C-alpha cells in the first residue's frame, strides 16, 4: 500500500534530518567544495551544419594545445571538482529563498526563438548557439508565445529517423519514410513536419512574479525546464533544472535550510535510484542513441564487461553527428564515440579533457552537486569500488564492426575521417581504472525533489514524468499542448 503524500513528505524530511545528524562526523572526510558567484557557464557552441546538408567542414585545430593531464591530476580532478570562492550575495542575503521571484534568476539572453515553419537545419544551428540547450518555437516572427520547443532529444529523434533507425508504428510509417527521403535528398524539412516524432517535456510556463517555491515544485517533479513569462504571456526567460541547482549551489550559503544538506553523504540522504539503464562500451553508438530515445533519457552510462563505468553519452553529444562525414560513427562502438567527444573538446577548448561523471555512496551532496554544475550534466552515476577485470578483455580494439583492425581492405582508399584512427581498448581509458561498478544514479530531479520536500513543499513523484516520457517515446507521438496543460492541472 502506498503511503499518503503527507506521510511521504514527513518521511523524507525525517530521513534527511537523521542524515544530517548521523553524517556530521563522516562528512568531514570529504571536504566541501567552495562555490563561486552565480553566473552562466554555458559556452556558446561553434556553428555546425546539419547532418542532412552534406557539409563536411571541420573546425580548425588550435595552433597550440595544452599538455594532457597526468593520472594523478585526473584522480585529483575526480575527487575535487573545480570551484571558486564561496561568498555571500547581498541580493539574496537574509531572504527566504521560497519568496524570491523566479524572474530574478532569468535573462532575456537565455531565450532563443525559431518559427514553426523554419527548417530543422535552422533550428539545429540555433540550438547549437543556445545557452539553455533549448530553442523556443513560435508560430511567426511577431509572436512572443511559445507553442513548442526543440532540444537535443528532439534532434536525436530526428537523426534516428533520417538514418532509418526509428521504429514507427503503422500510422507513422508514411511520415517517417517521407522525412527520411526528403532529408537524404537534401530537401528542406520544416519543424512543423517533425512535431509528431519529437519527444520532450510538456511546455510549462510560470509568471516571472511567481516565487521559487512554485518553480522548484515543478522542476522537482521531473519537468526539465519552465518558461518564465512577463506581461501578455510573452516569454522573458527559461529556467532549467540545471539552472536551479546552479543557483542553490552558488547562493546556498544564504539559505541555511538548503546549505546544511551539502555536507551529508549520498548514502545517508537516500536519494537517487538503483534502476539504471546502461549500454556496453562495445555496442554500436546507434544502440545508445536508440535506447535513450526509446526510454526518454537525456544521458546513458557506458560500461565495460565488468559493469565498470567507462564513459557517458548524452543527447547533447548528437551535435557531433550533424555532418554527413560523421555518419560512420553510428555503426562504430560507444567507446570510440567517447574518444571522439574527448578529442573534439580538446579542439574546441585547446586542451585535452576528461569527463567527471560519477560519484560513490560516500560522496557528499556538495561533492555531487559541484560535479553536476562543473560538467553541466543532468545526472551523476553512482559507483562502487572498481570491480575485478573479467578474464576476457573488457572491450575489443575499436574500429569497424569486424573488430579486426581499423585499416581499409586492400586496394581501397580509406574514407576521410575527422576523428582519430588510433585503436584504443576500453581498459586503456582512464575511467575504467578509477571509476567503479555501476550501482545507481543521482539526477538533478532527485536533488531538486529533495530540496523541495526538505523545505516543506510537495512536489509530485518524478516517476510519473519518467513514465510519461517512456510512453511518449514508445508511441512516437508528442502529447498535445492541451493534454500537457491538463496533466499539469492534475499535478498541481
From TrEMBL:
Look up the domain of life of the source: Eukaryota
Report biased composition (Low complexity) as residue ranges.
Answer: 1-41, 473-492
Q: Which SUPFAM superfamilies match?
A: CBS-domain pair
Mark out the compositionally biased spans (Pro residues).
Answer: 407-419
Q: GO biological process annotations for this chain's record?
A: cellular response to glucose starvation; regulation of mitotic metaphase/anaphase transition
Region listing for Disordered, in residue ranges: 1-48, 386-419, 455-492
What are the record's GO terms for cellular component? cytoplasm
Q: Where does it reside?
A: Cytoplasm
Q: Which key words are in the record?
A: CBS domain, Cytoplasm, Repeat
Record bears the keyword Membrane = no
All copies of the CBS domain together span: 272-329
Q: Which GO terms describe its molecular function?
A: protein serine/threonine phosphatase inhibitor activity
User: Where the protein is mainly located, per its record?
Assistant: cytoplasm
What family does the Swiss-Prot or TrEMBL record give for this protein?
Belongs to the SDS23 family.
Q: What does this protein do?
A: Involved in DNA replication and cell separation.
Q: What is this protein called?
A: Protein SDS23
Amino acid at each position: 500500500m502506498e503511503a499518503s503524500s503527507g506521510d511521504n513528505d514527513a518521511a523524507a524530511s525525517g530521513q534527511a534530518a537523521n542524515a544530517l545528524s548521523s553524517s556530521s562526523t563522516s562528512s568531514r572526510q570529504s571536504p566541501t567544495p567552495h562555490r563561486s558567484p552565480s553566473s552562466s557557464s554555458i559556452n556558446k557552441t561553434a556553428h555546425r551544419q546539419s547532418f542532412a546538408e552534406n557539409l563536411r567542414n571541420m573546425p580548425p585545430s588550435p595552433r597550440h594545445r595544452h599538455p594532457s593531464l597526468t593520472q594523478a591530476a585526473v584522480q585529483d580532478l575526480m575527487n575535487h571538482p573545480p570551484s571558486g570562492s564561496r561568498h555571500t550575495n547581498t541580493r539574496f542575503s537574509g531572504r527566504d529563498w521560497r519568496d524570491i521571484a523566479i524572474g530574478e534568476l532569468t535573462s532575456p539572453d537565455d531565450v532563443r526563438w525559431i518559427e514553426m515553419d523554419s527548417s530543422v537545419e535552422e533550428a539545429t544551428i540555433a540550438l547549437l548557439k543556445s545557452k539553455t540547450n533549448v530553442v523556443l518555437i513560435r508560430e511567426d516572427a511577431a509572436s512572443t508565445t511559445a507553442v513548442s520547443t526543440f532540444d537535443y532529444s528532439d534532434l536525436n529523434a530526428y537523426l534516428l529517423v533520417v538514418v532509418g533507425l526509428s521504429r514507427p508504428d503503422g500510422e507513422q510509417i508514411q511520415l517517417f519514410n517521407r522525412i527520411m527521403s526528403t532529408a537524404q535528398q537534401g530537401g528542406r524539412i520544416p519543424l512543423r513536419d517533425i512535431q509528431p516524432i519529437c519527444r520532450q517535456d510538456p511546455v510549462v510556463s510560470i509568471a516571472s512574479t511567481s516565487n521559487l517555491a512554485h518553480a522548484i515544485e515543478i522542476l522537482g517533479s521531473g519537468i526539465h525546464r519552465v518558461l518564465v513569462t512577463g506581461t501578455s504571456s510573452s516569454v522573458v526567460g527559461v529556467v532549467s533544472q540545471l539552472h536551479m541547482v546552479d543557483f542553490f549551489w552558488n547562493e546556498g550559503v544564504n539559505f541555511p535550510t538548503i546549505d546544511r544538506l551539502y555536507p551529508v553523504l549520498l548514502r545517508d540522504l537516500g536519494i537517487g535510484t538503483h534502476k539504471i539503464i546502461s549500454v556496453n562500451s562495445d555496442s554500436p553508438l546507434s544502440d545508445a542513441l536508440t535506447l535513450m530515445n526509446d526510454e526518454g533519457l537525456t544521458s546513458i552510462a557506458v560500461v565495460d564487461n565488468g559493469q565498470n563505468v567507462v564513459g557517458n553519452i548524452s543527447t547533447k553529444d548528437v551535435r557531433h553527428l550533424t555532418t554527413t562525414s560523421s555518419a560512420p560513427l553510428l555503426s562504430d562502438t560507444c567507446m570510440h564515440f567517447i574518444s571522439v567527444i574527448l578529442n573534439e573538446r580538446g579542439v574546441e577548448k585547446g586542451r585535452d579533457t576528461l569527463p567527471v561523471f560519477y560519484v560513490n555512496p560516500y560522496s557528499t551532496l556538495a561533492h555531487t552537486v559541484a560535479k553536476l554544475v562543473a560538467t553541466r550534466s543532468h545526472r551523476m552515476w553512482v559507483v562502487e569500488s572498481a570491480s575485478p577485470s573479467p578474464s576476457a578483455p573488457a572491450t575489443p580494439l575499436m574500429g569497424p564492426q569486424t573488430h579486426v583492425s581499423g585499416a581499409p581492405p586492400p586496394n581501397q582508399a580509406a574514407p576521410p575521417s575527422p576523428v582519430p584512427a588510433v585503436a584504443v581498448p576500453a581498459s586503456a581509458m582512464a575511467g575504467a581504472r578509477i571509476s567503479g561498478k555501476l550501482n545507481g544514479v543521482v539526477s538533478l530531479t532527485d536533488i531538486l525533489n529533495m530540496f523541495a520536500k526538505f523545505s516543506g513543499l510537495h512536489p509530485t513523484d518524478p516517476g510519473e514524468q519518467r513514465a510519461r516520457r517512456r510512453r511518449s517515446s514508445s508511441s512516437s507521438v508528442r502529447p498535445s499542448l492541451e493534454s500537457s496543460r491538463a496533466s499539469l492541472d492534475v499535478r498541481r
